[in-house]
Amino acid sequence: MALCLGCAPRKSKPAQTKSYHFRYVQVPMHIPQEQHRAYLCDHYWDKFDFADTLYTTKADTVEMLRAYAAYVANFVGPFDQQPIRQLMQRASASKKMFDYFGMLADKVLHDPNSPYRNDELYIAVLESQLASPLLDKYEKMAPEYDLRVVSQNRIGQKANDFDYTDRKGRTRNMYSLKSDFIIVYINNPGCSMCRDITEALKQSQIIAELQRKGRLRVLAIYPDENLDEWHKHLSDMPSEWINGYDRGCRIERENLYNVSAIPALYLLDKEKKVLVKDSTNVGEIEYFLQAES
Fold first, then answer.
1. In angstroms, what CA-CA distances link 171 with 30, 85, 109, 280?
2. So what's the pLDDT on residue 11?
3. What is the pTM of this model?
4. Can you give the pLDDT at residue 51?
């Protein structure tokens, strides 16, 4: 047997380590352009290994949040719960993965600071959690509470009524307002974002025009009883607005509206049905007013 003297021994190839980066799916060339969105809605997560729980610790959380947000923003309709239900079903390969995708959904669809916040889609997540055998009765208490809150004042349904007390001490209920449109503006006097939204509402031409024609009312409501700050900022609100507070804090106590994130804008039609829910975007209010009027 011949020996190769002086030759270095062969080095074994290093074992390839698995990448835990999110990999995007490419649309096959034979799929027509007009079907790309539907294809990616169905196949966006095909390269994600739901069975590998190491993703929950090794994947970059920011990258995964961006991937989840891109999926919701580009390929899931704002009222289409089925893709979210299917995603939660795929994530139920293990409790660890199910909890991980629940966390991603919470950050993207439920966090008050998320631009992709969407109660309709988040309802699908919560209902999946409540139906899952992976969670025990104690773990289901939080999603059960959240579901009660986000199920209030859904788009297309009648908004919850509430009483308010105005600057003259008179108590009325919101349903007593008669107008084609009502903007319910839940605010906290003195907060910086509230100041920005108040100014944007005051500068809106379509809001001013509809108010001038008597077709729109703005109800600014302070959901608390600490009236020192409320009185201090009364002059911030235009005189044509109704400015009131919630005596007894019934809105928060009975979860009539979600006041965990203030400010919040709701646009209602003349039947008190919700057109825009829990928004901080005056432009969104203007868009619906233009479309509806």
1. 64, 43, 36, 27
2. 56
3. 0.85
4. 97
Say how many residues make up the chain. 293
- Tokens 């910086």: give the residue: 192
pLDDT computed for residue 9 by the predictor: 54
Looking at 123, 150, 177, which one is the last position of a domain? Answer: 150
∠ CA 221-227-245, rounded to 5°: 20
Last residue of a domain, one of 127, 150, 173: 150
Domain match, 134 and 172 both: no
Shared-domain flag, residues 129 and 167? no
Contacts of 78 (CB under 8 A, 6+ apart): 118, 120, 121
Half-sphere exposure of 241 (CA within 13 A, CB side): 21
Q: Does residue 143 share a domain with residue 179? A: no
145 and 195 both lie in a single domain: no
Q: What is the pLDDT of residues 137-157, one digit of tens each?
A: 999 999 999 999 999 999 999
CB-CB contact of 263 with 197 (8 Å): yes
Nearest Cα to Cα of residue 242 among 217, 208, 210: 217
CB 91 within 8 Å of CB 97: yes
Cα within 13 Å of Cα(185), Cβ side: 30
Residues of the chain where predicted confidence (pLDDT) is lower than 50: 1-7
Q: Which domain holds residue 85?
A: 33-150
CB 163 within 8 A of CB 247: yes
154 phi, psi to nearest 5 deg: -75, 155
Residues 87 and 178 in one domain: no
Residue showing tokens 């039609």: 269
H/E stretch holding 183: strand 181-186
Question: Which pLDDT belongs to residue 113?
Answer: 86
Q: Is 200 left (phi over 0), alpha (psi -120 to 50) or beta?
A: alpha
Number of domains making up the chain: 2
Backbone angles phi, psi at 70, to 5 degrees: -65, -40
85 and 129 share one domain? yes
